[in-house]
Amino acid sequence: MARTQGSHSDITGPKVRAAALRLFARHGFAAVSMRQIAGEVGVQAGALYNYTPDKQSLLFSLLKGHMDELLAAWAEEPATADPVERLAQFTRFHIRFNIERPEAIFISYMELRNLEPENFAVIEKLRRAYEDELEAILRAGLAAGRFEMPDTKIATMAVIGMLTGVNTWYRAGGRLSLEEVQQVYWDMVRRAVGA
After folding, report:
1. Phi/psi at 61 (nearest 5 deg)?
2. What is the rounded distance in angstroms from the CA atom of residue 39 to the CA atom of residue 137?
3. Measuring CA to CA, which residue among 56, 49, 184 is closest to residue 123?
4. What is the per-residue pLDDT across 111-127, written as a single tens digit (0 to 9) for each?
5. In a 3-state reduction of DSSP, which class is residue 5?
6. Confidence (pTM)
7. Which of 47, 50, 131, 138 has its CA 20 to 30 A from that of 19?
8. CA terminus-to-terminus distance, the chain
9. How far apart, in whole angstroms, are the C-alpha atoms of residue 63 and residue 71?
């Protein structure tokens, strides 16, 4: 039997991932069925198993793909030795990266609880690797006398939480441009770490 048009794996596979991302972000992982994902893609439900073994694997793949992309993008940022400049760079990068991926960010935080323990451990390790990048900047600034804070781990979590929160309210075309929002947040981060 001939393959139906559009069912080639390099086309349908990404469509399955994109549909799952949209549906998980809109309705929540637990409320979405494989049949719904198939309907969104335009394939039979059984055809999904050519692209993913199950819904759990699909969620894990989305979360891992997001973290891999985040870490790779940060690694491509040009490094600077000055911790204040590096923290400003991290602040702007984090906001810019997240603003472009609202659904991925949403499920990255809201659907962690639905990962099986071994999958959760993998994602948690990747998240820690990203947090460690920020904490290294804060430690360097503290050691150089450029920052002032009682605990770099708590400061790391506070800064990431504050920066990620932009995603919940920012809309392009709003009162402030993305660059203006990044500057406001950089001013707040700078003050928070005593720079």
Report:
1. -60, -40
2. 46
3. 56
4. 999 999 999 999 999 99
5. coil
6. 0.85
7. 131
8. 66
9. 12
